[in-house]
Amino acid sequence: MKPLPEFSISCPLPISDGERILLAHGGGGKMMQQLIATVFRPALDGGNLEVQHDGAVLPLESSRLAFTTDSYVVHPLFFPGGNIGTLAIYGTVNDLAMCGAVPLYLSAGFILEEGTEMDVLRRVVESMRQAADACSVQLVTGDTKVVDKGKGDGIFITTAGIGVVKHSLKIHPKSIRAGDKILLNGDLGRHGIAIMAQREGLAFEGAIESDAAPLSEPVQKLLNAGIRIHCLRDLTRGGLASALNEIVSVSGLDIHVREKTIPVCEPVKGACEILGLDPLYVANEGRFITIVPAEDADRALSVLRTHPLGREASLIGEVKPASTGWVTMTNAIGTNRILDLLSGEQLPRIC
Amino acid sequence: MKPLPEFSISCPLPISDGERILLAHGGGGKMMQQLIATVFRPALDGGNLEVQHDGAVLPLESSRLAFTTDSYVVHPLFFPGGNIGTLAIYGTVNDLAMCGAVPLYLSAGFILEEGTEMDVLRRVVESMRQAADACSVQLVTGDTKVVDKGKGDGIFITTAGIGVVKHSLKIHPKSIRAGDKILLNGDLGRHGIAIMAQREGLAFEGAIESDAAPLSEPVQKLLNAGIRIHCLRDLTRGGLASALNEIVSVSGLDIHVREKTIPVCEPVKGACEILGLDPLYVANEGRFITIVPAEDADRALSVLRTHPLGREASLIGEVKPASTGWVTMTNAIGTNRILDLLSGEQLPRIC
Fold first, then answer.
1. Do A205 and A262 belong together in one domain?
2. ipTM, 2 decimals?
């Protein structure tokens, strides 16, 4: 894996102090061309791609592609461990990774609020470029709109991604079987708590940084090792508990996990206790589960642990025959509870 | 071309009167699943595509693909001749068409403001499905975020699109040559004026409907007829004048057009006079220019005129050798003027 970028970004281009986004930056005239030339173009790949006015023509050596999109509205825009730009890259790369695809190309659509500081936009776009470099994807096409002050919230970004699917597995909740093992690549809850702490100005013991990271490499390692992956799922909004519930509802099978095998770091545990949150429902941006046949589980775990984003990987549970339609968990003191789907959410605008 | 959908849409699904979007609809829990199941899923293609949790795996029979994205923030959401949903489909289909690509797959990311009426969202999503059907593209993947009331403006949509490129032309402003002819497929200014009239509550003589329409069919007709297209450009933000200026700035060649060959309907002319707007700078969503070698111009015009979206097609000007770097126009009374790029925009949030 290329080293993840630092997010303390200097701003190399000259820009007048306090310059702000104006409605006219979205109007298709000179000011928009200037914005594109000075802020966006440097972040787009200008290599040998045929970048058109409004689209890119791209080579593709595969007859199966993966396609995904996500909108990002995280508040605040910057948080420990990342910002809306890095999320917009990693989040979409991760959705492609969860299809078992190798991510290749990204698009980015910006909705900017009039009055947003140009320097904020610059920092976001620059970290998008660095994040894209870190996971070897190319930002190839984009768009910008500006909305009136009070009709947006600084910066919203929607990225879409294209990847190629080289394996012949059917990675899907419907592919899981009773007896399959469930692996988790690391500790839970850091992204959601980092955002919450930043938003509310809370200081917890021990710095909590978002776990935001690109998951395509660990997934490709599993595929390259011949692991027969049945299902992949990243643990974003709603966290682990919601992901498991979705898999249960699609597959029709039950799932059982053991709390003591699910890593949660002490600062996150402490913060969750204070805030009345359950880390199993808190959003992550660099965590995923892999569901594999029991025979492949040990080897898959070894493969995961060879990657920096899987060092703490653990086997957290298994798929059970269809019975109750529930996700159940044996908790730390040995009793069982049901992990239900929440009605709404614990934390809004987490990504 | 399949008939364009009607936009007076009934709402067949039962929904409680006055139901509104809540923050919890974006939270990854039961309410979000319900929103997806009742509003979005019916609009996504449920055919034989491998739709995953967060992405779609798609077949593709080409080694060259076109990829594009656009965000839509049009205000108001509904206007004569369409709404934000139809724009989000046609606009992205048109960006693919301008690469000479056959549009295949679309993604849609929704940013919803808390408190938006569910029925409004339903009508928008339903018209997206109808618009996608009308241009034979499939909406294959999507995402929804909800932002706090006062941090958005009802509905923002970002679509991305994938198309296949089957021709071997290099359709690009750099491919144009002195002597090339410039063709326009229809009259200018109807989209911008329709939005403006709706927004400001103005009533002009003669109903002005948006020209929003998918342009992939007329472009494919030109390609199938063997027309050696040098450049294509849709005339959205900034209108015809801005598009021509962009082509001049990329190609380094001059462009000259004749005003009397550029169709503008009477109601648009009248509205522009009252509002102090120049129709050459007003946005369109179903108009494009095609730049072709002089030898192909007559045939290209004939081909365009066989399609409903090209019935009024005309030859409006030509590419000139590099000299001033200007777009010039002979106006109705025979004098020449420079068509400069506007600094900002005439009308904000037009798409």
1. yes
2. 0.89
